[in-house]
Structures are given as structure tokens and as C-alpha cells.
Amino acid sequence: MAKNRRYRTLDEVSEEYYRNHPDEIDGYLKTCFEEYAKDGQTQALLSSLRMIARVKGISVIAEETGMTRNGIQNASLKEVIRN
Q1: Which domain holds residue 77?
Q2: CB of 49 within 8 A of CB of 32?
Q3: pLDDT of amino acid 77
């Protein structure tokens, strides 16, 4: 009898990878923004940014960008609502 297996999602695998390879986050984000510039797919960009936010933490991103946690969360919500 087959055991119940829990398969991980692509986001879960990606999060684990970037937690183990934080030096590759900047290159990944650069690629995400380059792809966004080509195709304008806001949802794909936001999905990638959310995944990196889960890896790094909103507080760290807020500190690095000079924004507040609320500011980052509100900006991402407004973009989702607009699209």
C-alpha cells in the first residue's frame, strides 16, 4: 500500500533554496525585474517578491529599503488590488 506523501510546492522548494543560498537572492531579483520589464507580468513579479520576503523577512526588507513594514505591505496590497 502506498504511503501518503506530501509533495512540496515550487515556492517551498524555492524558499528553501534561497535560505540556503542567500548570496543568490540579488541575482534572482535582478532577473525577476528584467523579466517584468519585458512582459509586464505584475503577478509574477509580486509572487517572486513575496517568496523572497518570506525568506528574508519583511522587517529585514523594510530596514534595507528604508520603508516601514506597513509601507511595504500596503504597497504590495495596493498593487494586487490595482491589477
Answers
A1: 10-16+23-82
A2: yes
A3: 60
* 69, 62 Cβ separation under 8 angstroms: yes
9 secondary structure, DSSP code: P
Angle between helices 58-65 and 69-82 (to 10 degrees): 100
* CA proximity to 53, closest of 19, 80, 7: 19
pTM: 0.72
Q: Max CA-CA distance within the chain?
A: 55
**Between helices 42-56 and 58-65, what is the axis angle to 10°?**
100
Q: Which residue has the cell 528604508?
A: 66
pLDDT > 70? residue 34 = yes
The total of structural domains in the chain comes to 1
